[in-house]
Design goal:
Elements lengths: L1 H13 L12 H11 L7 E4 L11 E2 L3 E2 H5 L3 E5 L7 H13 L7 E5 L2 H10 L4 E5 L20 E7 L9 H4 L4 H16 L5 H13 L4 H9 L2 H21 L4 E4 L14 E4 L4 H8 L2 E6 L10 H8 L3 E5 L2 H6 L6 E4 L1 H6 L3 H12 L1 H18 L2 H14 L4
Amino acid sequence: MDYFSLQLKKGFEEHGLSAFVMDLCRAKEGSKKLKKFIKTGETFVLTFNFEGLEREEGLFSLRDSYLWQQYGVPVYNIAVDHPYWYENRFADLLEDEEHHPGLLSFYHHFSIDRNHEKYFNTFYPEFKSAGFLPLAGTELIPQKEQKPPEQRGETILFAGHYTELPFFEKNITAINEEYEAFYRGIIKDLEENPKKTVEEASLAAVKRETGEEDIRKLRDVLYNMLFIDLYIRNEVRGKAVAALAEAGLPVTVIGKGWEKLPARRKETLKILPMTNSEGVLRALCEARVALNVNPYFKVGAHDRIFNSVLNGAAVLSDESLYLNEILPEGCGVSYYTLEALQKGETEAMIRTASKLLSSPGICREMVEAGRDKVRTEHTWIRRAAEILEQIQKGGLK
C-alpha cells in the first residue's frame, strides 16, 4: 500500500496538486503538519484499507471524532479486498457515527472488483460508494531499457504468499461436526463451481440453513467465515504452482510458506524470500513469464497483471470477466481456467506455459500487444486522474 500511495502521489502532482504523505507510524507528530496543510473545501484524503480511519492517535479522539470530520475533509478509501474483510472497520465507523453524527458523510468507498462494489452497495447502505476502481501497475524501468525476452531468465515467476491447507483445519473443525460439515459443503461448492464467488456460495449456504435475511447479521456471519476465502485462494494458487513445477517447468516464487507446498517434484521450484513492491517489480524485469492467480476476483484484476506487462513479462493467468474484457487472449496475457485447474486437467495450461518459456518471440508479441493498453489505462498515474474525476463530482475544487 505504501508503494501504491507513492505512485498516486506522483500522479496527483502531475495534475498540479500538492500532496501530503502521512506516516501513520508517527501519526501524532505528523498530525500537526497535516493540520497546517489542510484547506477545507480543497483538501481530500486518499487511503487504502481504512488506514487513517482506525482511531489512530493524532487523527481521532472520543471527544472530537476524526480530524477529517473536524476539518470537513472527504475521505476516499480504496479497499483492496472484498468488503467482508472489513466488517470490523465498518462496525467501528458506525459506532463512531453514533457519537459524532455526520461522520459517515465524509466517507467514500472505492471497490477494486465490480462484485465487491455490488456487495458493498447491498450490504453497507449506510456508506457511500465512490464506484469501481481497479488496481493498477507501475513501469519500473522505461521500455527502451528493459531486457528483451531472449535475455530474461527462462522461468515462470509468481509473487505471493502460500498457506498450506491443513492450517485452516482448526477453523473448519472449531465448533462441532455440524458446523464442520457446513463449512466443508461451501468449500466443495466452490471447488466444483469455480465461477461462483465466495460470497455467492457462502450466502446461499447460510440462507439455506438458517433462512436469515437481515443484512447486518449476514455480513457478520461472512466476516466470521473469512477462512473459507483464504482456503480457496491458497488452494488454487497452490495447485497452479504445483502443476507447473510437477510438469518439470522452472517456477520461481517470491513469498512465505512455499516450502510447505505439497508438490511431488520440488526440484524445479525456486523459492525466494518475501520482498517489497519494488523488489517484485525488479524480479518481473528479469522474468520471461509471470504467473497470476486472481484472489477470487471475478470482475476485477490483480496488479500482478499490469505490473508484469508494463515490465516486459508475458502473463499466464486465470480468467476474470473484467480481464477478458480489457485484455483479450494474447493481449499481454494467455489464459487458463480455474475449472480445469480444480479438475486436475492442467495439460492445456502446461502447454501454454512451456510454449511461452521456449518462445521469446511469442512473449515479445504478447507484451507488445498489451503494453500500450496497460500503459494508457492501467497505471497508478492513470488511476490518480480517475480518482480526481470522481472527487470533483463530489464538489471539491
